[in-house]
Amino acid sequence: MAMSKYVSGNPVVIDYTPVGAVSAGDVVVRGLLTNIVVADIEAGQLGAVKVFGSIERLATTESFDEMDMAFWNESASKVTSTVTDIYMGRIAKQFSATEVDVIHNLGTEALGS
Q1: Spatial separation of the C-alpha atoms in residues 99 and 60, rounded to whole Å
Q2: How far apart are CA 72 and CA 75, in angstroms?
Q3: Over the stretch 17-31, which tens digit does the pLDDT of each residue have?
Q4: Spacing of C-alpha 54 from chain mean position
Q5: Phi/psi of residue 107, nearest 5 degrees
Q6: Which of 41, 79, 82, 85 has the fewest Cβ atoms within 10 Å of its own Cβ atom?
Q7: HEC profile for 42-92?
Q8: Residue 6 forms beta bridges with which residues?
Q9: Where is pLDDT greater, at 21 or 107?
């Protein structure tokens, strides 16, 4: 799994029980959305994931403009612009050549109805 770094916001958090252990900042794909693990959770133990409302810093190999759509490539553990990847949110800013700040799950209209 990949690490995200919390930047800011007031995230909505829900309960989550992983099959395998996960670490704080890991990106977990659940259904059509990405979730961010709040704190380390052991396998089979109750913990929490952020589902919306935070800005997270993540790895990328692409350049983005503010408010571009961001997608999560699970196998590469990076943010992409590839619409067939899992929707992640909108770009808040390009932090560096290898990192972007993503407004997590903002603009879920990308998922359709």
Answers
A1: 5
A2: 9
A3: 999 999 999 999 998
A4: 9
A5: 80, 50
A6: 82
A7: CCCCCEEEEEEEEEEEEEECCCCCCCCEEEEECCCCEEECCCCCEEEEEEE
A8: 56
A9: 21
